[in-house]
Design brief:
Elements (H helix, E strand, L loop, with lengths): L1 E9 L12 E8 L5 E10 L8 E6 L16 E6 L2 E4 L2 E5 L5
Parallel strand pairs: 3-5
Antiparallel strand pairs: 1-2, 1-4, 2-3, 4-5, 6-7
Amino acid sequence: MNLARVSGTVVSTRKEQSMEGLKFLILQQVNLEGKDDGGFVVAADSVGAGIGEYVLYASGSSARQTLATDKRPCDAVVMAIVDNWEVNGNLKYKKGVDD
Protein backbone atom coordinates (compact mmCIF):
# COMPACT_ATOMS: atom_id res chain seq x y z
CA MET A 1 0.00 0.00 0.00
CA ASN A 2 1.03 3.57 -0.65
CA LEU A 3 0.20 6.88 1.00
CA ALA A 4 -1.21 9.76 -1.07
CA ARG A 5 -3.40 12.87 -0.97
CA VAL A 6 -6.40 13.23 -3.28
CA SER A 7 -5.70 16.25 -5.47
CA GLY A 8 -8.39 15.98 -8.14
CA THR A 9 -10.75 13.90 -10.20
CA VAL A 10 -10.81 12.51 -13.72
CA VAL A 11 -14.06 12.34 -15.69
CA SER A 12 -14.35 10.02 -18.68
CA THR A 13 -17.66 9.65 -20.46
CA ARG A 14 -16.33 6.99 -22.83
CA LYS A 15 -14.47 4.07 -21.28
CA GLU A 16 -14.17 0.30 -21.22
CA GLN A 17 -17.62 -1.06 -20.38
CA SER A 18 -16.39 -2.88 -17.26
CA MET A 19 -15.19 0.48 -15.86
CA GLU A 20 -18.67 2.03 -15.89
CA GLY A 21 -19.72 3.33 -12.48
CA LEU A 22 -16.20 3.82 -11.11
CA LYS A 23 -15.04 7.23 -9.86
CA PHE A 24 -11.44 8.15 -10.74
CA LEU A 25 -9.20 10.25 -8.50
CA ILE A 26 -5.86 11.96 -9.06
CA LEU A 27 -3.53 11.10 -6.20
CA GLN A 28 -0.34 12.95 -5.24
CA GLN A 29 2.08 10.56 -3.57
CA VAL A 30 3.32 11.82 -0.18
CA ASN A 31 6.03 10.87 2.31
CA LEU A 32 5.60 10.14 6.02
CA GLU A 33 5.70 13.86 6.77
CA GLY A 34 2.75 14.44 4.42
CA LYS A 35 4.93 16.31 1.91
CA ASP A 36 4.66 15.71 -1.84
CA ASP A 37 6.99 12.87 -2.73
CA GLY A 38 6.87 11.33 -6.16
CA GLY A 39 4.44 11.65 -8.96
CA PHE A 40 0.74 11.47 -9.55
CA VAL A 41 -1.43 8.38 -9.92
CA VAL A 42 -4.95 8.01 -11.29
CA ALA A 43 -6.83 5.49 -9.15
CA ALA A 44 -10.30 4.01 -9.00
CA ASP A 45 -12.08 5.00 -5.77
CA SER A 46 -13.60 2.14 -3.78
CA VAL A 47 -14.26 4.06 -0.54
CA GLY A 48 -15.74 7.47 -1.43
CA ALA A 49 -12.65 9.60 -0.81
CA GLY A 50 -12.70 13.34 -1.46
CA ILE A 51 -10.29 16.04 -2.53
CA GLY A 52 -7.75 16.91 0.16
CA GLU A 53 -8.07 13.62 2.04
CA TYR A 54 -5.12 11.35 2.67
CA VAL A 55 -5.66 7.82 1.42
CA LEU A 56 -3.99 4.44 1.12
CA TYR A 57 -3.92 2.98 -2.35
CA ALA A 58 -2.77 -0.27 -3.87
CA SER A 59 -1.35 -0.72 -7.33
CA GLY A 60 -0.62 -3.54 -9.73
CA SER A 61 -2.49 -6.81 -9.38
CA SER A 62 -3.49 -5.87 -5.81
CA ALA A 63 -5.66 -3.10 -7.26
CA ARG A 64 -8.04 -5.72 -8.63
CA GLN A 65 -8.66 -7.31 -5.23
CA THR A 66 -11.48 -5.03 -3.98
CA LEU A 67 -15.18 -5.65 -4.52
CA ALA A 68 -15.36 -2.49 -6.65
CA THR A 69 -12.48 -3.47 -8.95
CA ASP A 70 -12.73 -7.26 -9.14
CA LYS A 71 -12.07 -8.41 -12.73
CA ARG A 72 -11.71 -4.82 -13.94
CA PRO A 73 -8.60 -3.46 -15.70
CA CYS A 74 -7.44 -1.26 -12.80
CA ASP A 75 -3.82 -0.54 -12.00
CA ALA A 76 -4.49 1.54 -8.86
CA VAL A 77 -7.33 1.66 -6.33
CA VAL A 78 -8.03 3.78 -3.25
CA MET A 79 -8.77 1.28 -0.50
CA ALA A 80 -8.78 3.38 2.69
CA ILE A 81 -9.20 6.95 3.92
CA VAL A 82 -6.54 7.79 6.52
CA ASP A 83 -7.70 9.04 9.93
CA ASN A 84 -4.19 9.53 11.35
CA TRP A 85 -0.65 8.22 11.26
CA GLU A 86 2.23 8.06 13.69
CA VAL A 87 5.95 7.60 13.10
CA ASN A 88 8.17 6.51 16.01
CA GLY A 89 5.52 7.60 18.51
CA ASN A 90 5.07 11.04 16.92
CA LEU A 91 1.68 11.94 15.50
CA LYS A 92 2.30 13.15 11.95
CA TYR A 93 -1.28 13.61 10.79
CA LYS A 94 -4.75 13.58 12.31
CA LYS A 95 -7.80 14.09 10.13
CA GLY A 96 -9.58 17.38 10.82
CA VAL A 97 -6.54 19.01 12.45
CA ASP A 98 -4.68 21.48 10.19
CA ASP A 99 -6.24 19.99 7.03
